[in-house]
Amino acid sequence: MNLINELITHKVFGEGNIVNHEESIITVDFNEEIKKFVYPDAFRKFITLNDQSTAKTFKEIFLKREKEEEALELKREEEKEQQALEQQRKEKLKNHSIHESSQIVFWLDEEEQQNVFVDWQVSTGKVQSGKNEGQPNRAARVSPNSAGLLTARGSDQPETDRMILGLYMVNEMFSDNLSDGGMVPSHAEFRIELTDQEAEQMLFWNYYINKNYPQRTSWNSGKFRYFDNIWTAQILKDIIALKTDEEQIKEAQNFLEYFCQMNALDMDNIPEASGALKQ
Q: Who's near 12: CB < 8 A, 6+ residues apart?
């Protein structure tokens, strides 16, 4: 707003005329006595515009600017708080010797989709080449604090349609060095199976994101990949919101509580999902 030549009244210096306005500074001529003031701060306490119409317009602009500044400051505070929480989380992970991406996501073939919710275990597949060809793939990051995320898509579906069919906590006695034939067994209690209708609402790429290529949705190859601990908590949180059966909701809540304990996460401060499909 152009304020040059506007007449003003200052609480101390009286009547004046704005002769210059440069971003954060206004210059006022008080009967040949020149004063400079910080803009717009001076209008909060010391200066008023004499023209009522201009004053009204200025007040509206001023209030809008104040709201924008408040919103920006709130966003900065939220980002600062989130950064502090993330730093605390990393410190907890370090203190508990937990990798921040120690969850495992499986790409289930058709046979596995039929059997997984009976056997509640999934294979990591076999090494395809090299001296260890034919041997089970090692899942070095997987341990009893890990969850196994079960995903699939139809052969005629794009990768963006990959659905989460369910998930389980890894068996509390699991050790990759002791695993039988590359199988990752489940905990006896913490298991969730989604209905077909629920799975359609739980898209994998709403959670997973390649930080170097945030809009890329490609699995490429491999039987499994690792997954961030926070993303798994987001999935559990959304499953709780999705379920309607009271018993299943309670089971999912218990799962989330146990998962957060095992992964040193604050259950009350899980951020909203921001995967590739949400970019």
A: 46
Q: What is the pLDDT of residues 103-114, one digit of tens each?
A: 999 999 999 998
What stretches of 15-51 show up as alpha helix (H) in DSSP?
41-45
25-30 and 103-107 beta bridge pairing: unpaired
Q: Domain boundary residue among 71, 92, 118?
A: 71
- Token code pair at residue 141: 């990051």
Q: Taking a C-beta distance cutoff of 8 angstroms, is the pair 171, 144 a contact? A: yes
Domain limits for position 135: 100-278
Is 77 within a domain? no
The CATH number covering residue 163 comes to 3.10.590
105 shares its domain with 46: no
| Nearest of 185, 189, 148 to residue 166 by alpha carbon | 148
pLDDT by residue (tens digit) across 44-96?
888 999 988 888 888 887 788 888 888 888 888 888 877 766 665 566 556 55
Q: How far apart (Å, rounded) are the C-alpha atoms in residues 210 and 218?
A: 9
